C-alpha cells in the first residue's frame, strides 16, 4: 500500500515530480552479511541494553534522523511490511552485541505522536520527538530526553520570491495579511500569532502535503522544512522547477528542540545502565554525521529504496538536506560546547511559551512543569564535541 509523503503527496507526485529512484519489490531486503569485529568491552551493550534497541522515528527515514542511522551496521534488513529496518548496532564499525531496529513513524503508526506510540508499544526503547510534543504528553505520557540529534528545528515558512519580492521574512508575511497554509495540529502558528508576527486570521490549516496548490497559486506562504522543500520544489517538482524563499522559525525566536531522543519516564531507572553507554555513542554518531554525512546519507537512501512503502528519497536530496542541517547550524554543539546537549534555560523558555498554547487547546500540561522534567544531561559525555 502506498504511503503519503510527509511533504509532497503521492497523487501530486505522479504528475509533478521527476522520479528519482525505484523501490525494490518484496517485503524484506537485506544488505550483504558482514562479519564485524567486536566493540571493546566498555562499548559492549549486551546484558545492559535490550537485545534489540528499538528506535521510533517521527516520520520516514530521512537524514534529519541521520545519527541514528550512523549506528546501523552492515547486514541490515528492511522489513517493508512492518516499516522498519533492523541490523547490528555498531560503534566505529564494531559490533556492540545488540541489534538496532529503526521504525518509521507518521503514516506507519497512524500519525500518532511518538510519546503516545511509546506508551502503546512498550518494546520501544527510544523515541524521537520535539519539545512541544513532550510538553503536551507530560501529564499522561511523560518522556525524558537523554540527548538530541538536532540543536534547532529545520521548520520554516516558504514563499515564491517572484510573487512576493517584497517579503524578506515571516514578519513581512504577517504585515501583508496573506494566508499561511499549514497542516492541522501544528502549534507554532499560534506561537507566531502570540509573538505578533502573524495574525490569527491568516492561518489556514488545510495543508495536505501536496505541492499542487502552491504551484497553481503561489500567493500564500506555506509550511516546510529547510532540508527538504527548497530542493524538492526547485529540482523535483516539474511544474515549479525554480527556487523558493524561506525563513527558519528559529530565526524569529523559536527555540524548540527537534529530534530529541527520549525514553519513557517510568523506564528511566531500568534503562540507566544502557543509557550510560548508549547515549555517548549517539553523541559521537551526531558529531561524525556533522563532520561527514556521506556514509549516513548512503544508508538512508538505500533503506528507503528497499521499501515500496517509503516516499522516494534521492541521493541528491539527502546530500542537500544534510548540508543544510550542517551549514545552517541546526546540528552541532549546544551552548556548553557538547554535542547532543541541552540548554535547560532554553527548554524552560519553550515550556513557558508553549504550555499556555497547549492548555488553550485542551492539553493537560502539569502546573510547575520544569526543564528537568523533560530533559536530563546525566548520560551525556561532556568530552564529545562536533567539529
Poorly predicted runs: 1-26
**CATH fold node name of the largest domain:** D-Maltodextrin-Binding Protein, domain 2
Helix- and strand-based class?
alpha/beta
The CATH architecture term of the largest domain is: 3-Layer(aba) Sandwich
- Helicity, as a percent range: 25-40%
DSSP strand tally? 13
- Main beta-sheet strand count, sense and barrel state: 8 strands, mixed
| Average pLDDT number | 91
Largest sheet, order of strands side by side?
1-3-4-5-2-6-13-7
Rg, please? 20 Å
Number of domains: 2
C-alpha termini separation: 42 Å
**Count of helical segments?**
13
CATH superfamily of the largest domain: Periplasmic binding protein-like II
CATH class of the largest domain: Alpha Beta
Q: What fraction strand?
A: 15-25%
Shape by Cα distribution: globular
The helix/strand series, from N terminus to C terminus, equals HEEHEEEHEHEEHEHEHEHEEHHHHH
Organism: Nocardia acididurans
Protein name: Nitrate ABC transporter substrate-binding protein
Keywords: Signal
Signal peptide: 1-25
Amino acid at each position: 500500500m502506498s504511503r503519503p509523503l510527509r511533504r509532497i503527496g503521492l497523487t501530486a507526485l505522479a504528475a509533478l515530480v521527476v522520479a528519482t529512484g525505484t523501490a525494490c519489490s518484496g517485503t524484506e531486503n537485506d544488505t550483504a552479511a558482514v562479519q564485524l569485529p567486536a566493540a571493546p568491552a566498555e562499548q559492549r551493550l549486551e546484558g545492559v541494553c535490550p537485545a534489540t534497541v528499538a528506535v521510533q522515528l517521527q516520520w520516514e527515514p530521512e537524514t534529519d534522523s541521520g545519527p541514528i542511522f550512523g549506528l546501523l551496521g552492515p547486514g541490515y534488513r528492511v522489513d517493508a511490511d512492518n516499516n522498519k529496518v533492523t541490523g547490528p548496532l555498531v560503534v566505529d564499525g564494531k559490533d556492540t552485541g545488540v541489534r538496532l531496529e529503526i521504525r518509521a513513524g507518521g503514516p506507519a503508526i497512524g500519525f500518532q505522536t511518538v510519546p503516545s506510540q511509546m506508551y502503546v508499544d512498550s518494546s520501544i526503547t527510544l523515541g524521537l520527538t520535539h519539545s512541544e510534543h513532550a510538553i503536551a504528553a507530560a501529564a499522561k505520557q511523560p518522556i525524558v530526553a537523554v540527548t538530541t540529534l538536532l540543536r534547532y528545528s529545520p521548520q520554516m515558512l516558504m514563499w515564491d520570491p517572484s510573487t512576493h519580492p517584497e517579503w524578506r521574512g515571516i514578519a513581512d508575511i504577517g504585515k501583508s495579511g496573506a494566508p499561511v497554509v499549514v497542516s492541522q495540529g501544528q502549534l507554532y502558528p499560534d506561537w507566531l500569532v502570540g509573538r505578533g508576527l502573524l495574525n490569527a486570521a491568516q492561518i489556514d490549516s488545510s495543508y495536505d502535503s501536496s505541492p499542487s496548490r502552491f504551484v497553481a497559486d503561489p500567493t500564500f506562504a506555506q509550511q516546510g522544512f529547510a532540508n527538504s522543500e527548497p530542493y524538492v520544489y526547485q529540482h523535483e517538482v516539474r511544474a515549479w522547477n525554480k527556487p523558493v524563499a524561506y525563513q527558519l522559525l528559529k530565526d524569529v525566536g523559536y527555540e524548540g528542540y527537534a529530534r530529541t531522543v527520549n525514553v519513557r519516564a517510568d523506564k528511566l531507572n531500568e534503562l540507566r545502565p544502557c543509557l550510560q553507554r548508549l547515549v555517548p555513542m549517539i553523541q559521537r554518531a551526531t558529531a561524525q554525521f556533522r563532520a561527514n554525512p556521506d556514509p549516513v546519507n548512503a544508508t538512508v537512501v538505500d533503506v528507503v529504496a528497499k521499501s515500496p512503502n517509503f516516499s522516494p528519497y534521492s541521493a541528491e536530496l539527502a546530500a542537500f538536506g544534510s548540508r543544510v542541517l550542517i551549514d545552517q547550524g541546526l546540528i552541532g554543539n549546544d551552548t556548553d560546547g557538547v554535542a547532543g546537549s541541552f540548554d535547560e534555560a532554553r527548554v524552560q523558555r519553550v515550556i513557558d511559551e508553549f504550555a499556555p498554547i497547549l492548555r488553550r487547546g485542551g492539553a493537560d500540561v502539569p502546573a510547575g512543569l520544569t526543564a528537568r522534567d523533560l530533559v536530563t544531561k546525566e548520560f551525556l559525555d561532556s568530552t564529545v564535541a562536533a567539529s
